[in-house]
# Entry
Amino acid sequence: MLTKVAIVGRPNVGKSTLFNRFVGKKKAIIHDKPGTTRDRNDYEIIWKDKKFIVTDTAGWSKDLGVFSKEMSFQLELAVSQSDIVLFVVDGKVGVHPLDAQIAQSIRLSEKIVILVVNKVDIQADEVKGYEFYKFGFDNIVFISANHGRSINDLIDKIWENIKYDRKNKETKEILKIIFVGKPNVGKSSLVNAVAKEERSIVCDIPGTTRDSLSVKVEVGEKEYILIDTAGLHRGSKMKDDMEYLSTLSANHAIESADVAILVADASQGIGETEVKIARLLIKKRRPIIVAVNKWDLIEEKEEAVKYFTKELRQRMKFMSWADIIFISAKTSQRLDKIFQNVEDVFKEYSKQLAPEEFNCAIQEALTKKVYISKGKTLKLKEYSQVAIRPPVFMFSVNNLDLVHFSYERFLENFLRGKFSFKGTPLFLKFRKR
# Structure
């Protein structure tokens, strides 16, 4: 098992900024509104010859309203499951009454604690941070997460406290699965059901999930990283800057994922928002599985399957290659099928055709349909597969003006008929020879 490092502290001391420094990109939403981070967020870090998992947590506070109890639970659970705790404090503000309460709670946990005095932009600012020594922690590091000052010193300190494990040196591909959809379709419930613990706060108030939340889970003998995201809205429905940041976070998360699960609500059907999200996923070049959640609420299931399948195929003709699964986060119905499909889809997403079989397929396609426009014939001179993840095919033609979308669609459908490519978008590119 990898060493787990939890970042804790009161709101607005810079925990998410520090988390983003570890990750190397803006994975967690940064905002000066207390309570921006509500869930636990995991990310695997490799430093020198050791790996560890760093977890961003909600600010430790009792004054954050409706989510306070759930946030406190998430934070305490993160500490209890961690090996090392990074206790982050604000070096500019100095000791806050809440810091003392947190320090006491952490001491009771009997974990390895590194006191991180943040917002120390220059060495002269360290003097003010000396008052934090009264908490009695042996390990203390002065940093500026915002400017990157002494971050390597902090990671070295973590590294010193990690026991060496040869298994950590083994590298294997762990698929990242992202759950996307509009608010309140059950994305967080799905992540919790698979993780078998409350990793995401679940509430019927839209916008509960703000950050893109990463959770490492084991299903059977395989490990996966599940990414929960904020509900995606159509642009005209953006209410405030927090909602915009949440959507931005989801967009970044999509780019880092291996497979996307588009979650729809069984009681609502396939709507305009799902169509827009599907187009976004294809634009981001992700393989896609459609999961219809809350299937336990549907009574006439056989008729509903026909209805949903028809709706999907009609409204998303551009994505006829995506499978649809009917699931329930509440009852765990068919959740295992998600992972079976993920493995199949990712295999198709990574498929490299042998040159000879691809050439034979295109030759066959050319004998079946010749495209002629205004008395001129489109000729495919050279063709090859030039990329995977997703599969990309390059065609050299005699005249680019003759390349019509109907012929592109014919070629794509022909390739799918021959080689499947289930769940993955294909990209056909044309150039003049």
